[in-house]
Amino acid sequence: xxxxxxxxxxxPDALIKVKAELGSDAVIVKINKQxxxxxxxxxxxxxxxxxxxxxxxxxRYLASDKPDFRPEQILKEDSVSSQITELKSLIEExxxxxxxxxxxxxxxxxxxxxxxxxxNVHEKLAREIIDRxxxxxxxxxxxxPAAVKEVVLGIxxxxxxxxxxxxxxxxxxxxxxxxxxxxxxxxxxxxxSIFSVLDEKxxxxxxxxxxxxxxxxxxxxxxxxxxxxxxxxxxxxxxGLLLEKHEDKEMVLIDTAGRSPYNKLEIAKTKGFxxxxxxxxxxxxxxxxxxxxxxxxxxxxxxxxxxxxxIFTKLDETxxxxxxxxxxxxxxxxxxxxxxxxxxxNDIEVPAPEKIANLILQGSDNFERPSGxxxxxx
Length: 378
Ligand SMILES: Nc1nc2c(ncn2[C@@H]2O[C@H](COP(=O)(O)OP(=O)(O)OP(=O)(O)O)[C@@H](O)[C@H]2O)c(=O)[nH]1
Ligand SMILES: [Mg+2]
Fold this sequence. Notes:
The chain has helices at 11-22, 81-98, 107-118, 123-136, 145-162, 184-198, 215-226, 236-245, 264-275, 292-301, 322-331, 353-362, 372-376, and strands at residues 2-8, 27-34, 47-54, 172-177, 203-207, 230-232, 251-255, 281-287, 307-313, 335-339, 348-349. By secondary structure, it is an alpha/beta fold. It has 3 domains: 2-98, no CATH class; 107-162; 172-376, Rossmann fold (3-Layer(aba) Sandwich), CATH 3.40.50. The strands form 2 sheets. It has an 8-stranded mixed beta sheet, with helices on both faces. It has a 3-stranded antiparallel beta sheet with strand order 1-3-2. Helix 4 crosses helix 5. The structure holds guanosine-5'-triphosphate and magnesium ion. Guanosine-5'-triphosphate (GTP) binds next to helix 6.
């Protein structure tokens, strides 16, 4: 195994050196941004250091033998998987440095670009959207605010629907997971009422939240109002048995205890329950009123779950919806439902991409309280 350090002014520069010397089979072991050259280097601009390794036997290849060299191909080992993210962001950083960042948009585009930024859409994504619009709107219409807005809304809707999956249809077993207090139990009550009362489906509720003293009572109260069965599972095996018992139900909704994304032990316990029950869809519940960094931490903390959809709650508690788009786009997540208040069952809906697009572009100006009932009835 040959291991060597390479330096470049930027990452692509360093990777070219890796390829030239070690060939396409090199494995990136580490990437650092640093200042080169001891004490005096402190005053020098930062360089990118790449530590790369290659099996000596493979090293006989010349770089030109493998013209399709791509950095992601050479990241082979699990132990360096975290480097992938770092590598991607460094490459993106390098690419973005080469793009004109202060492109001056025509007025109508500029206003919408600023709207997106004001609503917390990441600048890179906002630029992507407005650049596409600039491309799509014919020049004679550049000064027509309505025409430009319509195109921008259409583009945002496409981003929103890109990863959207159909929420559970005729039959479903759905568990809601997520941090404390985001509205999992309330959302389960809303869904249960809609499935049971409006859709006239057979519904059962199961909770594995035996951690909080009042949690079982909270769900039981809703179950009693809707007149549907509610059960408590204390172990993964019990959960499996209860799912078997309610095999005849079209919908079974499973409530879980809220867990901090940093509480790995408790999150693993919840996962133990769900792992024992294949076929259960897992929806991650995120509060739209949380700042985006915390949402990202939550997604990371719960990344071991096979998440099929996200539910954004508490849209009524914020007026900036850009993070919803950022998260969907960056984490390739579809949104099954949004909730917009505490009322059970009204304040929930299946989000229409156009509606989300409107919220993202216009924030509070366009916020109407949606009615869950009409949203669920299409
Ligand atoms: N404003 C607003 N409040 C909501 C929404 N959904 C739930 N809530 C409120 O948020 C609080 C917490 O809701 P719960 O459903 O108990 O949250 P949870 O995620 O089950 O909480 P834990 O089980 O403790 O983790 C309650 O006061 C709910 O009424 C919403 O869409 N908007
Ligand atoms: Mg709860």
